[in-house]
User: Fold these one by one.
Assistant:
Number 1:
Amino acid sequence: RHIDAFDETDQFLFLYLLDVHPYNARWFKCDTAVEAHLPLAERFFPHDSDVASVRLPNLRIYQEQYLEQMRQTDRTLGLLFSYLEQHFNEDEYLVNLYSDHGISIFNRNNTDAVDVISENSTCAAWMMRGAGIPEGTVVHDLTSTVDIYPTLGHLCGFPVNDDIDGRLPAVFGGTARDVAYSMSMFPGQTYKLAVRNHEHVLRLETREVLDEDGTVDFTD
């Protein structure tokens, strides 16, 4: 509807999709298609109403709910892609699909202390389609959310300063990252950092917790 209403302009649409976001079952009704295919023992379970989504355990019901919502989101996005194909040429649109973080429900260890900077909790697939995107190409280079800006600048033709943290991925003619950084900063909690390359990961955590101003003592 938005594209139809303002069809005389070049548009930038930011679609925020919550469908695939995991929610604590204490306050969230899982999809009927999920509940109907799970045994009762996996549909009724002890849960803590105060557990945030990033700390949910790897229960099957959470995993199945996530996969079902992914399928529903895929169908919804299909409507958008079909519209774009019918109304625009391939070089007239660019779709950039990303997630702000990973999820703990696919972590291997099901303990009370969920690892918020584990690989599953921090990784996210970056998918693009449209003008300037090599079709059917899948790469496993390390990327970061800060790389989106220089990539859009490269593909859309607007200037990007050299002194920003973002980097143009190698698949678009840039330089591949040596490492990717993941961190957790939350007042009242310890600061956690993971630095990953393709073979290893460096982990650290402070003993002190973050202050309200975002600072923390790194002495220990």
Note: The radius of gyration is 20 Å.
Number 2:
Amino acid sequence: NVNMKNEINYFENREEGYFYYSDMMKPQIYIDIKRDLIHYNFGSYIFNNLHLNSQESLVSAEIEFKENMNNPLYDFTGVVIKYSKVFELELYLFAKKLFNILAFKDFSLNNIEYEVQGRKYKLNDYQTNKPNIGTTRKLLTNETIQELTNELETSYKNKLFIIKELGNIIKQVQTIRNESAHGESISISDCKKIRKILLGIGKDSTLSQLIKTKDFLIIE
């Protein structure tokens, strides 16, 4: 038997939800950053509804950002890539649910075509093939998809987010993400822009909006 000096049960949801069995082997800085994200940015409900890979990438990005935020010469490319991965995954999960609900309302929607790297797909392929965020943006701005979205039994705020705001947010993330994809060094200024979008510093968090709006999407 092993006796802990301070006994901790990692299998219980303790202290507002930021101690889990998945944190058992994590360093203290990871647990501290995760706790801060829950307490100051998202709340336990939103954070725990993020995909586990999103949680890992987000905490990892925050650790690297905070360790280097006072170094003006640091290349924040790796941090931006981690933030982008979070956005790309949560956007995909959101769009999957949205398109599934819309196709349930109008099955012909599944015949909408899109192309990724020269290969053609139809909308029903979206459920099993994750495209880039630029493709998702084009699909979200498709006229038929927007018309059906506007008919959903959800609030005007949710519709506005999907139809108008989300496309602009994707474009902002794309612009910053493309710089890192082309091998350009990312400054702390650009890193802060994408961090502000995701974490909601001084504004609503895009991740929170994605999770909350997704919750309100139901098949009628």
Note: The longest strand covers residues 113-116.
Number 3:
Amino acid sequence: MALDTNRIRKFLKEFDFKNLFVEELGWNYCSNQIEVVLDGSSFILSGVAEKHGMVSFTYSPFPNGQIPDYAIRRKIEKQAAKSVHEHIIIYADSAKTAQIWQWVKREAGKPTACREHPYHINQPGDSLIQKLQSIAFSLEEESLTIVEVAGRAKSAFDVEKVTKKFYDRFKNEHASFLKFIEGIPDDELHRWYASV
């Protein structure tokens, strides 16, 4: 599905997550709210959009306008998972200069692994936009299940999988390229030249 990256970039810079998800990524409107209570303090997660059971939430900043630190974000996410198992939480500061996109990898028999992607309005946001393209849906994909939607989120946010895929492909391309290079008698130099 071809996306309008300029519109996505505009929505990111304007912190307009509803239009980003609904208008550009093909998700559905969602107005769920989850109240998370930690150490006597109440935090509200507001639903932005949902796709077949997976919900994206925004988190209002601390009273001081800041994004909570990593330890508190993890606690908030664990509480949210009790209400909505598969989700993305977008933390934003009140000055609307920074965002942290949080997704948690869940696999049976393994501990959860938190994946976060920071974004600042002074950045072009290309790496985040690339991830968002993986969780964009067309009208033809309306029959997807929560498992398929969560799988797309995993392919977008799970850096380990992307890194392993990159290096596996790099290794194969490197081996193929080695066969085409001629005239370098030293094996080590030959491998180095192929890497370059």
Note: Residues 172 and 178 are 10 Å apart (CA to CA).
Number 4:
Amino acid sequence: HWSGACSGSGTCQVTMDGDKTVTAHFAGVSHDLTVAVDPDGGGTTDPAPGVHSYTYGTVVNVTAIPNAGFVFDHWSGACSGSGTCQVTLDGDKTVTAHFAVANHDLTVAVDPDGGGTTDPAPGVHSYAYGTVVPITAVPNAGFVFDHWSGACSGSGDCQVTMDGDKTVT
């Protein structure tokens, strides 16, 4: 807007019938940064999902924060890849943080070797976060199942909830 011998925000015309002062006032342009997550419930961001307004040229660091059971996978929109997301607001921008279900390893072992097997078989198996895995012991001839150790205990049924890496013997 203008101040002094002119006012408002239109064209300024000054009739020079004496000394005059005119001041032009400027305001920074703002742009919107729209932040989203995919899927809903996979995590959040900082700044939070939604629309945020920033002055032209502002550099915004966007951080992905996965919820339990998820991992950050990648960015799309104004950022790409899986590294740091830094957006310069020289126009309206959109960025989406993509999350994926976390996988965890279940290591199954037998003791002694040759004493029997399991279902799932001995070895390392990958399961999605929250999966409940039943494990069955199958003794070989000349052996009886005695007990579990690790993520299961006792001699009854063994079910493991995959909320982290687990080992069962």
Note: The chain has a mean pLDDT of 96.
